[in-house]
Design a protein that fits this description.
Blueprint lengths: L3 E4 L3 H12 L5 E5 L14 E2 L6 H8 L2 H7 L4 E2 L3 E5 L2 H16 L4 E4 L14 E5 L3 E3 L1 H14 L3 E4 L10 E4 L5 H4 L6 E10 L11 E4 L5 E5 L2 E5 L15 H14 L8 E11 L6 E6 L2 E5 L5 H18 L27
Parallel strand pairs: 1-2, 1-10, 2-9, 5-12, 10-17
Antiparallel strand pairs: 3-8, 4-8, 5-7, 6-7, 11-14, 11-15, 12-13, 13-14, 16-17
Helix pairs in contact: 1-5, 1-8, 2-8
The chain binds flavin-adenine dinucleotide.
Flavin-adenine dinucleotide binds next to helix 1, strand 2, strand 11, strand 15 and helix 8.
């Protein structure tokens, strides 16, 4: 059997290695040039949602749900994802997306946002939620999958550049660094940041990930703190990971409005990480050259899709095809006109 070297032990590489081992691959090496989950995975918000705007993305998330549910708390808390609309147009968008999501089997429903204790709702016209969605611990999940992979015989090597290891197939799962291993990959780093504020007294244990449809501002509970995120007014196309303090203050002000009991909560920590963006914000999955397979370009939502991607990649590498249709994610799509933009990049 051929030797498969998986480059990168973030959420994606860990899931691929784990699923390869589950399917009985014997000679798999998982190489991480730094430490497990030290890339974007260790910096992520940890949201898991099936509420995307395109079928291609909904399917990846839907097929990932089972593993998260199996992992359960404390690695995954199924507290739901709730979108709030404050305008008619926003509410119409939510309704339109819910229709698509429901047609793909996702149990999205219109809800009364007043059910969330402490949330300001007097300016909210309507809300949609999916209670199967939730929040996870990206680094913890990744370490758990690496542990399971190693238990099943995968050779895990930290502080090792994958390019130094002999292989028959090299799987490039290096996030924003992926083009270093295969130059032709159309992946660009985008700097994004998060902030934790707290402690905040009396946070509901089941606080859903809450998202304002119009602004994209969103927050989740993290212990007795809240973790805040938002798309940025001007994209920072750089591989430099740095925090912009004015964006931190903007998020705190938005939180004070949406969740008044958190007003003035001190900053616990703010940090930045890199999204690995593709031109259409969909990932690249498949062979890109002789013996080189890519699983990258997850454009800010790769953690939540990593279970499905890991399984599909393992099936394709070992059995020649995967149960999940990978055709929307092939690199060849960038040669033609066809794009299928995912508008919900949060
Ligand atoms: C601020 C922020 C918030 C986010 N929030 C969410 C969220 O809520 N939900 C969600 O699903 N996603 C989220 N994401 C995106 C998510 O983090 C990524 O899509 C996902 O973690 C990608 O995992 P990965 O394994 O592909 O990449 P990474 O986690 O970046 O891992 C790649 C690894 O490859 C290693 N590497 C690089 N070169 C080599 C080499 N030559 N040899 C060996 N190893 C190498 C790196 O050291 C790194 O550890 C967020 C990202 C950021 C930055």
């Amino acid at each position: 059997m051929a030797r498969i070297v998986v480059a990168g032990a973030g959420a994606v590489g860990a899931s691929i290695a784990y699923h390869l081992a589950l399917l009985g691959a014997r000679d798999v090496v998982l190489c991480e040039r730094a430490e497990i989950a030290s890339g974007a995975t260790g910096k992520a918000m940890g949201g898991f949602r099936q509420q995307f705007s395109t079928e291609a993305e909904v399917r990846l998330a839907r097929a990932s749900l089972e593993l998260y549910v199996e992992l359960g708390p404390p690695l995954f808390d199924q507290v739901g994802y709730m979108f709030l609309a404050t305008t008619r147009a926003g509410l119409e968008r939510l309704a339109g997306r819910a229709e698509l999501q429901q047609s793909l089997g996702v149990p999205v429903e219109e809800v009364d946002p007043r059910r969330v204790r402490g949330l300001r709702t007097d300016d909210v016209l309507g809300a949609y939620a999916c209670w199967e969605d939730g929040v996870a611990e990206p680094a913890g999940v990744t370490r758990e999958l690496v542990r399971r992979a190693a238990e099943r015989g995968v050779d895990v090597r930290e502080h090792t550049d994958a390019r130094d290891i002999e292989h028959d197939v090299l799987v490039v799962a290096c996030g924003a660094a992926s083009p270093e291993l295969w130059r032709e990959l159309p992946v660009r780093p985008l700097c994004r940041q998060l902030v934790d504020v707290g402690p905040i007294a009396d946070l509901p244990a089941d606080l859903p990930m809450t998202i304002e449809e119009e602004t994209g501002f969103h927050f989740r509970r993290y212990g007795d703190a809240l973790r805040l995120a938002m798309p940025e007014p001007a994209p920072r196309w750089t591989e430099r990971e740095y925090v912009d303090d004015s964006l931190v203050e903007d998020k705190r002000a938005r939180l004070a409005h949406r969740y008044p009991q958190a007003a003035g909560a001190p900053i616990v920590r703010a940090w930045a990480g890199l999204y690995d963006m593709t031109p259409d914000a969909h990932p690249i999955v498949g062979f890109v050259g002789e013996g080189v397979y890519a699983a990258c370009g997850f454009s800010g939502h790769g953690f939540m899709q990593s279970p499905a991607v890991g399984r599909a990649v393992a099936e394709e590498l070992l059995q020649g095809e995967s149960e999940l249709d990978l055709s929307p994610y092939r690199i060849e799509r960038f040669k033609g006109e066809a794009v299928f933009p995912e508008t919900l990049v949060l």
